[in-house]
């Protein structure tokens, strides 16, 4: 009875939120564009029954100006891809516990979405579903199903599978973009599975698991944890998923323009670049965790004091989706130009040993103003001048006074051929910058060489001697004629 | 536990001992065999032991009469020559590479094991351990595409030996002697054969013969190494772009006859004194011309099926 | 005096001469017409199109020349060839051909004749063949007489050996080279006869033209010195020789003298100076001493020169012989060290049938002609003899050098034939005792142009008649020669001639029959064998009608219209020029095989498995791979048949990675069916050739019609390439190289994923249980 009543209530509530969502969708559709650099439309694949659990997250998205469409896993419509054209620019996959989906939602479709430039936020569940088979393609190593990440530290009333992860444990290398902004104060509540990352340059961790956590099975209460850890330790930790090298959130940037940038690979390919955020559990986005307090013991003069802070989940969810939807860390090559030193205007071919000036303009996307702004911030940008192998590889330094312009001057190698200017800037979290431009380098013209070569003396000598010889020959020849006549006369 | 440790303690020196004295054995064998180790089953296994710290080049051959392996006999000398050249290398490097010969009749088992269907074959086993260790475990096969000569063989094997094989082609004294003696003989007899050399017809004959052989396709048989006759004894090779040695002679003969008859008609016959004989000769040579030419055409039709024309026959 | 047939007596010598020259002109006009017409079979059977492979480059270069002018052409760097190395065209080619057609083009346009450059290129070769006929005429006329010249012109006009390289559309260097060759030789002979510096210079000028036009100029560079040398050794030094040779050589002197090809010329020049000096001395010292002096000086010079030459070659001061030159002498050299040269079909040795095919009856008239050259052994005859020996050797070594043999064969055959005709048309009948020489015995002009009467011949007849009684009479050189020849043959001076008309008739009919047969032969060979522009193939249907197979152009135009301008196409080098010419796309390698490594790279890519080939393709920015496959149609000149050469050339550079034996079955067969070796089955070339080939046959088993082998039902699969285009008869297949996978996987596993196969976990995992307390 009670349950039944509650379910009805839940349904009506969900219906209500749905109407609300639809309403907001319309309004925001008419309102200004979203913070993303690639598009406003978001489809959230989510069981309608669970919709209420993520209301905060969804509202925040809409507040950012996204048009959010909810699609139940079983629904036939709206299709993700129609006639090879993606219907949405971002997909959030929150149905982590669902097992069966309508047929157009499958790993192949998701990969196809990526290659056509749609961004994904994928949340793994404890049960096995299509994501479990998709994850290996992104070189994620998943623990066996139904084994959540557990940790007994710090001591807390929550079950060991609900873990507070403090953000400052996440270490992002300097050359990569830190996805979680500093607004994520304190810790993040997490519950779900963790995964190991195999070495794929496109994949990088956003949030690591706590050092003392590990992956274990909670399904029933038999056996001892000490044994579990012990026999794992005996095997040298083989098969034990533990420690801070595991990640609970990881980012993946698809590869585009990795090709020759030439012929059929031409085109900057920026618009096709897509990002994927892998999250160990959908609960990270949930209202429950967003509202949940994090209780910490703070040392004071007089013993301990227990304080409760708001968790960083809400902000973290926004940061993760913000990065995935290409709001932040988005770069673009506006313009590439090259010309001879002390000359202006492009040339279609260079001569060997020319001094070449190469300039590139780069701008980055600013989600707050929603505009592209020139960015001079890149420290380690470089350009190759390559034919089969790079002949020149030099740093591109920002030009003072010209925001967003990077330039360098180098001398063309003493080797003719079809060379390529190659910019290949791949940093974790940032958009990949890849640009190639071919230009032939030709030998000097026939009159471009020095007039007199010491090496050519044999030929000069030959020529001169021949002409002298010609004169001598003429004289001798005439003389000889005369003599012959004389001879004939004598005979 | 303890036992295991003990065993391993025992085993290690044994292994080393095995390889080291095996090496001495091989060295002595090589020295005795004039650089080439004559292989049988167990020496083969020793030589190609997985724990070898030496490399080895092995010639698989079948020199026995009954095998009737002509290429084997052809290749044998150059193999021995290269192996002999290797013996001149200082021992430090020499003992890291061995040359060996395995005859089919000594160890047919090895042939089956390596399923070798043909001979001669040369395989190079790289060193599995030691200073000259190579990553490859599989033996490399030597490609006979550029012949059985020792020069290319040594050149190729030098890629796998510690130091290049100091092989030098032997000086062909016999040829030099013949050349020199020929020159001397010529110089001595010059005054006797001078009139012959000064006669234009000597040179004419030389010229004609040369051009006849050349146009008979001699160079083709020379370069392609075409046989004198076909395997089935047929003297004419099928196919437009192919011919046998005998065809050169036949064709050259035909050309020669035709040319000769023309020459007779133009240069000899007019000088005949009696009309009867002259007339006879004219008809004779015209007939020869006609007949041999049609023979030639028929021959050509055999080579080139599509040729539509024919003469008398 | 008796004659075999009645002669008109009331014709004045002047009339005879005029008629003769008129007839000569008419005959020559007809010959030129025949020469040009017989080369138009290609245009008639197919269309006005450039043939073969190399002509496509010449055509492209000519267009550049015509469009941009000579200086731009000189500096032309072609970035689309040999991508990404590029090719310096201007400095590395023989511009003679292009320059010639460029001049013609501008000339015509100056007179407002808007002729398309393509038609000029197509028709250049036939035009020059007429000129060749003329040069041959002049040459032979110098050798014997104009009637022989006309015969020679007729021969070279229609002989297949020359037509094979000069049909309309085969726009190649040889087209003009043979004319230059013959004319240079003519000038040389002329210079030698007259001792005129003018002709010597003319020879040098045309020699220059030749140098600019054809790599075969080395032939002249060595023929003329050899001739001079032989003349010296025969003790035939004369002021004429000196003048002719010096005036020729002083221009050749400009040539880089450091290559061995030119050494001979230099040496002979030096020798000539010595001898000239010696002959100067001769006028002062007595003959005996002179002989010794000459002998000694010659010998010492020879020794010194040879020694110096050897030393310099050894020290490397002078360039060693080029590879192609080696392959001429050491016949095994090419196959061993430069497989690229050996792989070219026209560098194969010549079997006798092709001699007969190309020269027919001339091939046995040729020795007879040489014999006659020996009879009256003047300087020019010596030249022909040397030429005959050398050229017949070269022609035996390489099929393409048949071209250099053809002229001398035509010349000497003409000499032989016209001598035959002269002998049997000459009406004078010998007598037992001739009383006195007849005055000019005019002969009628019979139907054949070759029988035109001619003062020289009459003189010979006269001389012959006089040979009987007067041995010590002022006589022409011809006379002397005949006498000497005959006396050498042991025949005392007898009267020369033929009795009776029937004998003459027999021989003449025989001769005319042979000529007719020759004409039929040439027509057949030209129309059937040498007129197909290997770009367009023709096959005859069951009902005998002709069916045109146009796959090449279909594919090339597909490339041109459906791929980006800068899409790089990889193919075997045979098709490089055609792709550049017809599809206008960058190619990796083409028919001027200047970079062995680059070609070997392509060979490696073709003969390696996909996953090894893919990085090579990406590194070279390859977008499309084009292959030729004849298995469906039975077109034998396809890439699978050339595959072993690719393997060999790749093996030359990467002997450890590519090995030829791996591509044969264990029993040493070259198979493509299910018994094919693994290396063969995994090679890119095999996969591309037979990709989806079995599907075409449905249920019955697929058969490769070239190899006559059954292709396995389950064909090869491609992970790194996509089939982009396959022509109507499957002769040309084009594949597109796939891009890297967006997820950074290797394309093989990406494909597996696409087909829905699950990727197995890369790490075994075991479940752990923990207690909750």
From TrEMBL, chain A:
Q: What is its main location?
A: endoplasmic reticulum
Start and end residues of each OST48 middle domain: 338-479
Q: How does it sit in the membrane?
A: Single-pass type I membrane protein
Q: Which pathway features in its UniProt record?
A: Protein modification; protein glycosylation
GO terms in the biological process aspect are: protein N-linked glycosylation via asparagine
One GO CC term, this protein: oligosaccharyltransferase complex
Regions that span the bilayer: 457-480
- Establish whether keyword RNA-binding is in the entry: no
Limits of the OST48 N-terminal domain: 42-324
Describe the function of this protein: Subunit of the oligosaccharyl transferase (OST) complex that catalyzes the initial transfer of a defined glycan (Glc(3)Man(9)GlcNAc(2) in eukaryotes) from the lipid carrier dolichol-pyrophosphate to an asparagine residue within an Asn-X-Ser/Thr consensus motif in nascent polypeptide chains, the first step in protein N-glycosylation. N-glycosylation occurs cotranslationally and the complex associates with the Sec61 complex at the channel-forming translocon complex that mediates protein translocation across the endoplasmic reticulum (ER).
Q: Give the family per the record.
A: Belongs to the DDOST 48 kDa subunit family.
* Xref: PANTHER family: DOLICHYL-DIPHOSPHOOLIGOSACCHARIDE--PROTEIN GLYCOSYLTRANSFERASE 48 KDA SUBUNIT
Q: What is this protein called?
A: Dolichyl-diphosphooligosaccharide--protein glycosyltransferase subunit WBP1
Species source reads: Gymnopus androsaceus JB14
Automatic annotation (TrEMBL), chain B:
- Answer yes or no on keyword Protein biosynthesis: no
> Which locations, inside or outside the cell, does it occupy?
Endoplasmic reticulum membrane
This protein's GO CC annotations: oligosaccharyltransferase complex
Keywords, comma-separated and alphabetical: Endoplasmic reticulum, Membrane, Signal, Transferase, Transmembrane, Transmembrane helix
The signal sequence is: 1-17
Transmembrane annotation, as ranges: 173-194, 201-220, 250-270, 282-302
Coiled coil residues, start to end:
none
Task: Report membrane topology.
Answer: Multi-pass membrane protein
Q: Which GO terms describe its biological process?
A: protein N-linked glycosylation via asparagine
* SUPFAM superfamilies named in the record: Thioredoxin-like
Q: Name one GO molecular function term.
A: transferase activity
A Pfam family the protein falls into: OST3_OST6
The primary location reported for this protein is: endoplasmic reticulum
Instruction: Tell me the domain of life.
Output: Eukaryota
Q: Write out the similarity annotation.
A: Belongs to the OST3/OST6 family.
- What PANTHER family does its record include? DOLICHYL-DIPHOSPHOOLIGOSACCHARIDE--PROTEIN GLYCOSYLTRANSFERASE-RELATED (PTHR12692), GH11935P (PTHR12692:SF0)
State what this protein does.
Answer: Subunit of the oligosaccharyl transferase (OST) complex that catalyzes the initial transfer of a defined glycan (Glc(3)Man(9)GlcNAc(2) in eukaryotes) from the lipid carrier dolichol-pyrophosphate to an asparagine residue within an Asn-X-Ser/Thr consensus motif in nascent polypeptide chains, the first step in protein N-glycosylation. N-glycosylation occurs cotranslationally and the complex associates with the Sec61 complex at the channel-forming translocon complex that mediates protein translocation across the endoplasmic reticulum (ER). All subunits are required for a maximal enzyme activity.
Protein name per the record: Oligosaccharyl transferase subunit OST3/OST6 family
TrEMBL record, chain C:
Where is this chain compositionally biased, Basic residues type?
A: 757-773
Topological relation to the membrane, as annotated: Multi-pass membrane protein
Sorted alphabetically, the Gene Ontology cellular component annotations on this record are: oligosaccharyltransferase complex
Q: Which Pfam families match?
A: STT3, STT3-PglB_core
Look up the EC number in the record and give it: 2.4.99.18
Keyword annotations: Endoplasmic reticulum, Glycoprotein, Glycosyltransferase, Magnesium, Manganese, Membrane, Metal-binding, Transferase, Transmembrane, Transmembrane helix
Which cofactor does this sequence's record say it needs? Mn(2+); Mg(2+)
The protein's job, in short, is: Catalytic subunit of the oligosaccharyl transferase (OST) complex that catalyzes the initial transfer of a defined glycan (Glc(3)Man(9)GlcNAc(2) in eukaryotes) from the lipid carrier dolichol-pyrophosphate to an asparagine residue within an Asn-X-Ser/Thr consensus motif in nascent polypeptide chains, the first step in protein N-glycosylation. N-glycosylation occurs cotranslationally and the complex associates with the Sec61 complex at the channel-forming translocon complex that mediates protein translocation across the endoplasmic reticulum (ER).
Can you say what this protein is called? Dolichyl-diphosphooligosaccharide--protein glycosyltransferase subunit STT3
């Amino acid at each position: 009875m009670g349950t039944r009543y509650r379910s009805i209530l839940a349904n009506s509530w969900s219906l209500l939120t749905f109407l609300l969502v639809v309403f907001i969708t319309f309004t925001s559709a008419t309102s200004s564009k979203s913070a993303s650099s690639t598009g406003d439309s978001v489809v959230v694949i989510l069981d309608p029954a669970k919709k209420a659990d993520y209301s905060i997250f969804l509202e925040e998205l809409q507040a950012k100006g996204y048009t959010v469409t909810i699609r139940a896993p079983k629904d036939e419509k709206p299709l993700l891809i129609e006639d090879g054209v993606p219907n949405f620019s971002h997909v959030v996959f929150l149905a982590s516990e669902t097992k069966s989906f309508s047929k157009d939602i499958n790993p192949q479709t998701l990969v196809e979405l990526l290659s056509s430039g749609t961004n994904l936020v994928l949340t793994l569940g404890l049960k096995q579903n299509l994501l479990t088979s998709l994850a290996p393609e992104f070189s994620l190593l998943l623990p066996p199903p139904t084994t959540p990440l557990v940790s007994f530290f710090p001591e807390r009333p929550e079950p060991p599978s609900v873990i507070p992860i403090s953000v400052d444990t996440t270490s992002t290398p300097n050359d990569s973009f830190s996805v979680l902004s500093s607004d994520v104060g304190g810790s993040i509540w997490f519950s779900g599975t963790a995964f190991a990352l195999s070495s794929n340059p496109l994949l990088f961790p956003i949030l690591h698991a706590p050092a003392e956590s590990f992956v274990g099975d909670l399904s029933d209460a038999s056996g001892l944890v000490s044994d579990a850890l012990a026999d794992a330790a005996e095997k040298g930790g083989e098969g034990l998923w533990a420690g801070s090298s595991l990640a609970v959130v990881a980012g993946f940037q698809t590869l585009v323009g990795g090709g020759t940038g030439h012929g059929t690979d031409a085109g900057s390919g920026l618009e096709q670049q897509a990002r994927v955020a892998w999250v160990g559990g959908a609960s990270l986005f949930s209202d429950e965790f967003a509202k949940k307090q994090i209780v910490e013991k703070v040392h004071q003069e007089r013993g301990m004091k227990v304080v409760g802070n708001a968790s960083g989940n809400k902000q973290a969810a926004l940061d993760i989706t913000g990065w995935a939807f290409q709001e932040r860390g988005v770069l673009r090559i506006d313009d590439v130009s090259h010309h001879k030193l002390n000359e202006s205007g492009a040339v279609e071919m260079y001569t060997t040993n020319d001094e070449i000036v190469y300039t590139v303009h780069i701008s980055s996307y600013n989600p707050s103003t929603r505009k592209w702004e020139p960015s001079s911030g890149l420290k380690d940008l470089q350009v190759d001048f390559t034919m089969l192998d790079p002949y020149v590889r030099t740093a591109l330094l920002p030009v003072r006074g010209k925001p967003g312009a990077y330039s360098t001057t180098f001398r063309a190698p003493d080797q003719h051929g079809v060379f390529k200017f190659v910019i290949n800037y791949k940093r974790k979290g940032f958009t990949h910058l890849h640009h190639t431009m071919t230009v032939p380098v030709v030998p000097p013209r026939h009159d471009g060489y020095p007039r007199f070569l010491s090496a050519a003396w044999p030929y000069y000598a030959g020529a001169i001697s021949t002409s002298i010889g010609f004169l001598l020959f003429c004289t001798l020849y005439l003389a000889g004629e005369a003599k012959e006549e004389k001879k004939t006369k004598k005979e | 536990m303890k036992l295991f440790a003990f065993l391993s303690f025992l085993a290690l020196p044994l292994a080393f001992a095995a390889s080291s004295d095996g090496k001495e054995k091989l060295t002595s064998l090589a020295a005795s065999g004039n650089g080439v180790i004559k292989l049988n089953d167990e020496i083969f296994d020793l030589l190609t032991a997985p724990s070898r710290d030496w490399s080895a080049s092995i010639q698989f051959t079948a020199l026995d009469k009954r095998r009737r392996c002509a290429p084997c006999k052809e290749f044998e000398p150059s193999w021995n020559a290269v192996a002999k050249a290797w013996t001149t290398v200082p021992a430090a490097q020499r003992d890291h590479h061995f040359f060996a010969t395995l005859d089919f009749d000594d160890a047919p088992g090895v042939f089956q094991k390596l399923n070798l269907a043909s001979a001669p074959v040369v395989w190079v086993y790289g060193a599995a351990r030691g200073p000259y260790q190579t990553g490859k475990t599989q033996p490399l096969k030597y490609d006979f595409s550029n012949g059985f000569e020792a020069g290319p063989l040594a050149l190729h094997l030098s890629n796998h030996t510690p130091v290049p094989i100091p092989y030098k082609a032997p000086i062909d004294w016999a040829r030099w002697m013949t050349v020199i003696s020929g020159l001397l003989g010529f110089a001595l007899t010059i005054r006797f054969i001078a009139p012959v050399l000064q006669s234009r017809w000597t040179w004419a004959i030389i010229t004609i013969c040369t051009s006849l052989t050349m146009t008979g396709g001699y160079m083709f048989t020379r370069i392609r190494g075409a046989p004198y006759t076909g395997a089935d004894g047929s003297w004419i090779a099928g196919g437009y772009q192919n011919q046998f040695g005998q065809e050169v002679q036949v064709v050259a003969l035909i050309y020669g006859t035709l040319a000769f008859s023309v020459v007779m008609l133009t240069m000899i016959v007019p000088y005949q004194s009696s009309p009867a004989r002259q007339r006879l000769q004219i008809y004779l040579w015209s007939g020869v011309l006609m007949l041999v030419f049609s023979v030639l055409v028929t021959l050509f039709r055999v080579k080139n099926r599509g040729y539509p024309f024919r003469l008398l026959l | 005096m008796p004659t075999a047939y009645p002669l008109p007596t009331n014709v004045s010598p002047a009339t005879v001469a005029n008629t003769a020259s008129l007839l000569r002109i008419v005959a020559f006009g007809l010959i030129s017409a025949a020469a040009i017409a017989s080369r138009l079979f290609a245009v008639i059977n197919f269309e006005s199109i450039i043939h073969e492979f190399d002509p496509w480059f010449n055509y492209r270069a000519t267009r550049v020349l015509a469009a941009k002018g000579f200086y731009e052409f000189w500096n032309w760097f072609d970035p689309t060839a040999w991508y990404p190395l590029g090719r310096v065209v201007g400095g590395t080619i023989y511009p003679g051909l292009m320059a010639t057609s460029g001049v013609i083009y501008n000339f015509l346009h100056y007179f407002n004749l808007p002729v398309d450059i393509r038609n000029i290129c197509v028709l250049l070769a036939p035009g020059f063949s007429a000129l060749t006929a003329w040069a041959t005429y002049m040459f032979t006329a110098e050798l014997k007489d104009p009637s022989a010249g006309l015969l020679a012109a007729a021969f070279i006009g229609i002989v297949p050996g020359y037509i094979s390289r000069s049909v309309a559309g085969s726009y190649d260097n040889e087209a003009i080279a043979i004319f230059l060759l013959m004319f240079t030789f003519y000038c040389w002979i002329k210079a030698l006869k007259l001792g005129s510096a003018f002709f010597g210079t003319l020879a040098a000028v045309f020699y220059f033209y030749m140098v600019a036009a054809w790599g075969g100029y080395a032939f002249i560079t060595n023929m003329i010195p050899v001739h001079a040398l032989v003349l010296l050794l025969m003790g035939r030094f004369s002021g004429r020789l000196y003048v002719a040779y010096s005036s020729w050589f002083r221009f050749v002197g400009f040539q880089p003298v450091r290559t061995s090809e030119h050494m001979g010329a230099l040496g002979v020049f030096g020798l000539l100076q010595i001898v000239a000096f010696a002959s100067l001395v001769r006028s002062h010292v007595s003959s005996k001493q002179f002989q010794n002096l000459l002998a000694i000086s010659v010998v010492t010079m020879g020794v010194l020169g040879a020694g110096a030459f050897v030393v310099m070659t050894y020290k490397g001061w002078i360039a060693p012989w080029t590879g192609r030159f080696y392959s001429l002498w050491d016949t095994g050299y090419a196959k061993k060290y430069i497989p690229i040269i050996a792989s070219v079909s026209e560098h194969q040795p010549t079997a006798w049938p092709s001699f007969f095919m190309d020269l027919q009856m001339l091939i046995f008239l040729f020795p007879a002609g040489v014999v006659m050259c020996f009879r009256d052994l003047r300087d020019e005859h010596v030249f022909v003899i040397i030429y005959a020996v050398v050229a017949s050797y070269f022609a035996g070594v390489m099929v393409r050098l048949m071209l250099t043999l053809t002229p001398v064969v035509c010349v000497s055959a003409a000499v032989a034939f016209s001598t035959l005709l002269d002998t049997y048309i000459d009406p004078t009948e010998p007598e037992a005792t001739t009383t006195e020489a007849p005055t000019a015995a005019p002969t009628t002009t019979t139907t054949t142009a070759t029988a035109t009467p001619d003062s020289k011949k009459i003189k010979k007849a006269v001389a012959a008649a006089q040979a009987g009684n007067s041995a010590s009479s002022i006589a022409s050189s011809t006379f002397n020669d005949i006498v000497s020849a005959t006396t050498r043959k042991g025949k005392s001076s007898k009267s020369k001639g033929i009795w009776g008309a029937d004998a003459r008739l027999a021989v003449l009919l025989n001769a005319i029959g042979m000529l007719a047969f020759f004409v039929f032969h040439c027509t057949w060979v030209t129309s059937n064998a040498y007129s197909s522009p290997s770009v367009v193939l023709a096959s005859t249907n069951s009902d005998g009608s002709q069916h045109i197979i146009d796959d090449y152009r279909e594919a090339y135009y597909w490339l041109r219209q459906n791929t980006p301008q800068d899409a790089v196409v990889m193919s075997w080098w045979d098709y490089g020029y055609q792709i550049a010419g017809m599809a206008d796309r960058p190619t990796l390698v083409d028919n001027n095989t200047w970079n062995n490594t680059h070609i070997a790279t392509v060979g490696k890519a073709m003969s390696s498995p996909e996953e090894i080939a893919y990085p090579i393709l990406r590194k070279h920015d390859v977008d499309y791979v084009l292959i030729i496959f004849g298995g469906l149609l039975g077109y034998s000149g396809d890439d699978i048949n050339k595959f072993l050469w690719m393997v060999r050339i790749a093996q030359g550079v990467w002997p450890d990675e590519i090995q030829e034996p791996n591509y044969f079955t264990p029993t040493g067969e070259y198979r493509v069916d299910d018994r094919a070796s693994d290396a063969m089955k995994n090679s890119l070339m095999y996969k591309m050739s037979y990709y989806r080939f079995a599907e075409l046959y449905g249920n019955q088993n697929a058969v490769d019609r070239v190899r006559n082998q059954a292709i396995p039902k389950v064909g090869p699969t491609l992970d790194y390439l996509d089939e982009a285009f396959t022509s109507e008869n499957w002769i040309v297949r084009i594949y597109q190289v796939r891009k890297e996978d967006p997820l950074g996987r290797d394309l093989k596993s990406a494909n597996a994923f696409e087909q829905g196969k699950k990727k197995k976990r890369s790490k075994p995992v075991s479940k752990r249980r923990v207690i909750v307390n």
